[in-house]
Amino acid sequence: MFHPDELRAQALAGFAAVSGGIYSTMPEQHREFFAALPYLFVATLDDHDWPVATVFSGPKGFVRAPDATHLRISSQRRLDDPAQAALQTGRPVGALGLDFSNRRRNRVNGFVGRTDKNRIEIIARQSFGNCPQYIQRRELYPAPARLFPIERLGALDQDARTLIAQADTCFVASAAHVELAEGGVDISHRGGKPGFIYLDDETLWIPDFRGNRYMNTLGNLLAQPRAALVFIDFAQGDILHLQGETRIVWQLASGENVQGAERYWCFKLVSAWRMRQALPWRGRNVEFSAATLRTGIWHDDDRP
Question: CATH no. for residue 200?
Answer without folding.
Answer: 2.30.110.10
